Structure formats: C-alpha cells, structure tokens
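Subject: sequence -> structure tokens, single chain

Hey, anyone have a minute? Need the predicted structure for the following. Not urgent.
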Amino acid sequence: MSIEPQQLVPEAGVEAVEAAPALPEEGAALRRRVLGLAWPVIGENMLETSLDIVNTILVAALGAAALAGVGSGLQIMFFVLAALAAVSVGSSVLVAQAVGARDLERASDFARQSLIWSVILSVPLALVGFFMAGPIMSVFGLEPDVARIGEAYLQVAMGTVVVLVALVIGGGVMRGAGDSRTPMLITLVANVINVGLAYSLIYGNFGVPQLGAVGSAWAAFLSRGVALALLVTVLWRGRNGIRIAGGNWRPQWATARQVLGLGIPASLEQVLLATAFLVLTILVARLGTDTLAAQRIAMSALSFSFLPGIGFGLAATALVGQSVGARQLAAASGVARIATIWAVIWMSTIAGLVFLFAPQVMSVFTNDPNVIQIGAGALRVVALTQPFWGVGMVQSGALRGTGDTRYPLIIGSGGMWAAVLLVWLFLTFIGGGLPAVWAAFLITSPITALLLWRRFRTRVRELASE
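Reply:
Had a minute. Here:
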C-alpha cells in the first residue's frame, strides 16, 4: 500500500518551482536550515560510528580471527536492523510532514505509535536471532575459531536490536520536529560510557570479567540502553511541540498502516542492500581470514566518509518532508540542491584524504602487514566512488521526504545487486582480490546517482501539478 503525502495546493506552477531562483535571503535561510539540521546529524552518526570503530580497534588487538568473527556478526545485525527500518523511515517522514502542516498533535501520535510498533516488530526478530545464532553464522563458511567468536558475539548483539531500533526511531522523530542536536548529545554520552565498558569487558580491566570479543557487544548494548533511556525521557517531556506523554498507547493499526505504507519500501530496500552486503561478505570470506579482516577495517574506516551523505540525506528527508507538509515545493527543491552540494564536497574531501593515506588509516586498526596491504588497496578504490554515493544518498533522502520510497528501493537495491554480480564475475573470471570487489561499485554508483537525481526533479513536478 502506498501512502502519498497529503494533497497539495502548490504555491506556484511547475515552471516557477523549477525556474524561479530563490531570493538571496531565501537561499541563505534554506542553507542555514539545511546546515543547522545536518551538522548535528553528521555529529551523531560520527559518534555512533566512532562507537563501533573504538570497539573494532579494541577487538583487533585480539587477532584477525576475533576481528573476522565480530565483523561477520555485525553483518547479520545490519540485516536484522534493515528489516526493521520500515517503522523508522515511515515515522520520520510522517512526523516531518505533520510538523510542516503545523499539526503537532498528529505528529505526537505518530511518534507514540512508532515506538510501540518498534517493540512489537523487533522483539520476535531479536529472539529468533539469539536462538538461531549458530545456524545463521554457518552460512559464512568460516573457520571454526572465527565461527565460534561470531556466534557468541551475535547472541549478545541481538539484544541490542530492540534498543537500536527505538533509538533510530526516536532520533528520526526529533529530526522531523527540527531537533537534531539532542540525539547527538545523547549519542555522545553513550560513546563515553562505551569506551570505558569496552576496555573493561574485552580485556578484563578494573576487576570485571574478561569476555574477549563478546565484551564489545555487551559494552554497546549497555551504553545504548542508557542512551535510549535518555531519549525516551526527552520525548516524554516534549521537544519542539512533539510529546509522547499521555495520548493513546494502544497499538493502532490505522496509524501503523500509514507508517508502514511509507516505510516498507524503505525497509525492503535496506533488507535487499543488507542481503547484498551479506552475499558480498560471503564472497570476500572465501578469499581468506586476512582479507575478511581487511574488509571489516576498510568498512569501519570508510564509514567516516559516508557520514556527510548520511547526515545531509537525513536532513533532506526531514526538511523536504516539512516543506511538502507546508506546501512549499520551491523550498523542497532548494533543500535537496543545497544538501547534495555539501554532501559531495565533504565526501570528496574525506575520500581524498583516505586515498592519499590509505596505509596509515589501516595501521590505526591493525599492525598486521598483510591486512594493511590488502585493505589499503581496497580503500583507494572505494574512495573514488564517494562523490556518486553522496549524490545518491541525498537524493534518496529527498525522495523519501516527498513520500516516494519506492523508487529509491528499486534503484538503490538494483544498483547494489548489480555490483555484487560484478564482484562475482570479477573474482570468478579475473581475480584481483579485495580491490576488485570495490571496483564493481565504481561502475554502478554513477548510474544510480544519475537516476535518483532525475527522479527527484520529476517528483517535484508531479507534486506541483496536483
């Protein structure tokens, strides 16, 4: 079921939306709105990424087997979280559109129902993942010691699913209401707690049991649990007119249909992407433990390069959604344009530094010369894709803000699976190792970026003509 945004009465015709330049004051105001929302989002995601990176560095000291086992467990976690993305995306878009329409009561109801349904959907998946950790890890065909570590890690990590989904939803609700600073500060608190817990639980410092690699999962779970408690407290008291206290806390299927109607295509997109990455990990695992460890480090290192795209993409979703709700389509186009430009600039800059200093980046995580050599080559290849991924991330976010979550599903997942097919062909008939794996994305990412950019322009024209 597709839930379109509320019927719009455009302020201007199609030609005016596309052709009329914004006044300098309007352009400056839009830029301030985009940057004001995006920078805290980038900071929040940087802190969230830092949490995983700190844990990766601490686990890397235990050896390649521990690193590969944790990396495989994280792939399963990404898959499960992707399956639950429907509630997060749907609530973020609908809250933003309700805020833009100045209907704060409806926005608060969306927030409450989204949190309720996140628990209903995530608890069964978390239980299945816990009890089926062993069979799930067997799909990677890992060496016995790696598989044992991955299974133990996954059993604990699955407990974080309920917490993580609720955190993502709460953060999306706040961004829809125009507050991206509070989620960032809460994530900062979680990071500080995680560093101390991870250092203690992995190595057995400060009188706590030595848990090894699984200690990083416990640290992430406990620190994010504290973050969720803080976030729920803020939403309960109210933020920018959105307040979850009071109201109806019984599950409402009508509201769920609206949230899921927008979110299911986005969720399916994330499931297909996560499945593709899972298949990619299986292909990489066949290249050996050192290559799998290098892949895990490369993904952690490059996650910093992805941050501007993620941040400006989420800002575009919230601000385009608000603009659609307020029936200001020219502002929606301006938001998408500004967010895309800034994302490309920052992702290109970070990617350039990664390209130049790839061995040094790898050496931050490990002193294994073979892993460093393998990972450095991969980093340099994937760094070249960053400008195109920046365009794709922001345009996908902007499309979701208009209520179109189907097209990003088709193009995003299609491009990813095309890349995985190319990886299989490269490794089967040409070889090339980990750099060849990432070379496939250098072929597909420019195409997906162009298609998403064109679709957003078309979507704005469609809304303007209604």
